[in-house]
Structure formats: structure tokens, C-alpha cells
Design a protein that fits this description.
There is one protein chain. By secondary structure, this protein is mostly helical. The protein has a single domain (35-231), classed as Rhopdopsin 7-helix transmembrane proteins, CATH 1.20.1070. 66% of the residues lie in helices and 0% in strands. It has nine helices and no strands. The chain has helices at 35-39, 42-58, 66-83, 86-110, 119-136, 141-162, 170-190, 204-223, 226-231. Helix 4 (86-110) packs parallel to helix 6 (141-162) and helix 7 packs antiparallel against helix 8. The relative contact order is 0.16. The model has no long low-confidence stretch (mean pLDDT 92).
């Protein structure tokens, strides 16, 4: 396991516990410790605001939280990479769990495993279970998220095989493609395969942020189809 070098004592945020992961970008002794990885989170916030406004028109109750979750993810990840602290890493990962739990709870509802009244309760149960596991097993934050994403995909495949396919999977495929590219960028950055630590403009992890933010948009486009709304 990689040894995390804490911030120098004279730097802002140095009194906080460092996170469990260090990406390629060098840390600066500044309130914005990792500029590229920090500012790239504005993509989440911009898309979240768009989705929040869009759903005011669409009025889709079962997916109404996706815009606020995108905004929350952007804020939490911004603070995490600005501070290089476990405190905000915890909230960053928790916001990711909130997104994956939302997708999973929607699919459980569509598959009739839970009722509409239990969708939000299921979401909260998944979220707090994940947060508890993260608190107990700090290095396993990303695998916990990955398991929830895979579970969401598995239920979507179940629904695909079961349904009459009277709605389009175009945006769902775009979401998977964006997520695959985003994860590739994450791996290349995390493993230092493509890495220029002194570049504070474009980093692989920043690319992960931008591509991941597009997933919110594509999933919203997929779930906002009226055929899906009628089915649940």
C-alpha cells in the first residue's frame, strides 16, 4: 500500500488527517492543494444545476435528487482535493455512494423488488451502510462504490432481459462509455502510467471528474424517458 506523505506543518490543512489515496498531481502548500483535481469538479456543479432546472420542467419524482447529488458530489470532491484530507475524502466518497445508491434503488423499484414508498428508505439504507463500511475500512472506499455500480448494472441487465424494451438504451450506453473512459483515466493517473505531477492544468484524475459528471447527464436522460416513468 502506498505511503501517504502528509502536508508540511506550515501548510493550510496540515492539522487534518491525510486521505488514504494520493493521485498523480503534486500537492501545493496552498488552500487549493491540487488545482487541476480541484477546479475540474465545477463540471459536476454545472451539470447538477442544469439537471435541477431541467427536472423542474420534467417533474420526475423518482429521479429528482440526481441534480442535487451532482452538485453535492462536486462540492465534496472540490473540498477533498483542495484540502487533501480524509475528512473531505469521506464526504467525497459518501456523495459517490449517494449517486450509486440512487441508481440501485431506482432499479430495485423498476424491478418491483421494492415499492415506490420504500425507494428513499432503500437509498438511505445503502448510503449509511456504505458510509459505515468506509469508516471501518478506510482503504476500501473505491471498491465499495464499484460494487454498488456493478449491482446497479446487474439489475439493469435483469430489467433489459425481462422488459419489452420499449425505451431506448442510447443514453445508458453513453453513460457506460463515459464511465469506462473515466475509470481508464482514473487508473492511468492512480498507477502513474500517464503522470506529470507538476501539471496543475490537466491531470488524469481531473479527466475522471469531467467524464464522470457526464454520467449524471446521461443517466438522467435515460431515466427521464416517459416509457420508464409509466413502468414504475
Amino acid at each position: 500500500m502506498e505511503t501517504i506523505i502528509p502536508l508540511l506543518p506550515e501548510c493550510p490543512w496540515s492539522s487534518f488527517l491525510p486521505p488514504t489515496i494520493k493521485y498523480c498531481e503534486d500537492n501545493l502548500c496552498s488552500y487549493i492543494t491540487q488545482p487541476s483535481n480541484t477546479w475540474s469538479n465545477l463540471a459536476f456543479i454545472a451539470i447538477g444545476i442544469y439537471l435541477l432546472l431541467q427536472n423542474r420542467k420534467d417533474k420526475l419524482s423518482y429521479i429528482r435528487y440526481i441534480g442535487p447529488i451532482a452538485i453535492l458530489t462536486g462540492i465534496a470532491s472540490f473540498l477533498y482535493h483542495a484540502s487533501f484530507t480524509f475528512l473531505f475524502q469521506f464526504f467525497d466518497l459518501s456523495s459517490m455512494y449517494l449517486f450509486s445508491a440512487m441508481i440501485l434503488s431506482i432499479n430495485l423499484r423498476r424491478a418491483k423488488f421494492i415499492s415506490a414508498n420504500n425507494q428513499n428508505l432503500t437509498l438511505l439504507a445503502l448510503l449509511f451502510t456504505s458510509m459505515g463500511l468506509l469508516f471501518l475500512f478506510k482503504p476500501f472506499g473505491i471498491p465499495i462504490f464499484g460494487l454498488q455500480v456493478l449491482a446497479g448494472f446487474a439489475f439493469e441487465y435483469y430489467l433489459f432481459r425481462k422488459s419489452n424494451q420499449d425505451y431506448s438504451y442510447f443514453y445508458y450506453k453513453l453513460a457506460i462509455a463515459a464511465l469506462a473512459l473515466a475509470f481508464t483515466a482514473w487508473i492511468l493517473d492512480f498507477k502513474r502510467i500517464v503522470c506529470n505531477p507538476s501539471n496543475h492544468i490537466v491531470q488524469g484524475h481531473a479527466v475522471w471528474h469531467v467524464l464522470s459528471s457526464l454520467c449524471f447527464l446521461f443517466f438522467y436522460k435515460f431515466y427521464s424517458q416517459r416509457e420508464i416513468e409509466k413502468a414504475i
